Amino acid sequence: MGKRSDLVHGTLDLLILKILSLEPKHGWAIAKRIQQISKEDLQVQQGSLYPALYRLEHQGWIKANWRATDTGRQAKFYALTAAGRRQLETELSNWNRLSNAINLIVRTT
Amino acid sequence: MRWTDRLALARRSMFGRERVESELDAELQFHLDQQIEEHMAAGMDANEARSQARRSLGSVIQVKEECRDSLGLTLVDDLRQDVRYALRTMTRNPSFTAAAVLTLAIGIGATTTVFSVVDAILMRPLPYKDSDRIVRIVSHRMDGSKPVRTWTMAWPYFIGLRERAQTLAAIGGYDSFSNLTRQRLAMKIEGEQGAAELLGTRMSPVLFSMLGTQPTLGRFFEVPEEQPGRNRVIILSYRAWRAHYGGDPSVLGRLLTLDGRGHSLVGVMPAGFEFPDRQTDFWIPLTPAPVPLPSAPRPSEILDLLEWAVLLGVSTRGLGVSNFLAAITTWEPR
Q1: What number of C-beta contacts closer than 8 Å exist between A and B?
Q2: Is the ipTM of this complex over 0.95?
Q3: Inter-residue long-range contacts of B133-142, CB under 8 Å, 24+ positions, other chains counted
Q4: Which end of chain B has the lower number of beta carbons within 10 A, N or C?
């Protein structure tokens, strides 16, 4: 992970699934998107991103196929499967529970 | 993921190695190119952009390794490499390989054989009901001044022992030799497959119920059928019944000729009943009576003729085998 901020362990899957829930994207675009939305606070290294993508594909949560990008180059696009959509729901509610709990502790103590 | 997709992915992991590899290369190359473009757009010159991008991609090999890990490919890979290495080493040194394989083969073979024998003889109980209550009686006869151990017992001893045991134990004998010829008891038959010779055993009727088996067809001998005049009955093994009579139930009651006398077939034993040996294909009752001597027996034959039966005793409820044996071993015939 970057010098800026390490991702909380286990949240990369959630971020990937969330970003892919809008539209299919290739790896580079996923990394850029995470960086942009977090206003450069989060940076995903390829060393984590691609293994995560392969793992998610292996779990059946995302599906890959090769397509041309806007600039005409072939790239591997990942899209969410139905199972991936359900997984996203689960991970989102887990994340909400976790962050609420942490917020509560941080604010009250 | 549908199971078909899962299968396709698994197949790709196992067999589509080259395609997976090249896809991975292309995907990482695409990423690298995008990074370079971005750096150049930010004003770097081409060389610097390239080296910067390479740095941020980290070790490409390591990334690929981790991707393969995610797919579960490395396990297959490692295994494949190990097997290939082993095969290479073996072909390089064939005589050593042969020696190793031979050693293993002999070792496994010998162990298996020994185990099968030990299992059959020592581990498995005898295939009879209450097999711990069945004993074989060994007697000693005096030869000059030394006792000689013998598995057989002369008929007066047998009769006397049986009278003494009364209801405490069932005592029966068996003998696999012909009363007349003193050869192995054998019978010529005309079966479905033509002429054949079957081997047999004479057996006390009480032994059948003692061994706790049920006949497949017909009945056992009844106790009075050991008496002369009533003992012309015969029981067949399952194997002989199937092989020579086609498993036909209507053979019951048929007369089979043995030692020139007709014996009525009264029963068929179940498959796997092998008593006292595997070769026995028929049984006739053992008659505890003096053997009619052949016209001129040789002296050595006389003892044999009188000692026909090996005995089995089963103590009944309330009296242990050892107590029973203690009670009978002090006994002498009048």
Answers
A1: 68
A2: no
A3: B133/B314, B133/B315, B133/B321, B134/B210, B134/B211, B134/B312, B134/B313, B134/B314, B135/B312, B135/B313, B135/B314, B135/B321, B135/B325, B136/B310, B136/B311, B136/B312, B137/B161, B137/B310, B137/B311, B137/B312, B137/B313
A4: C
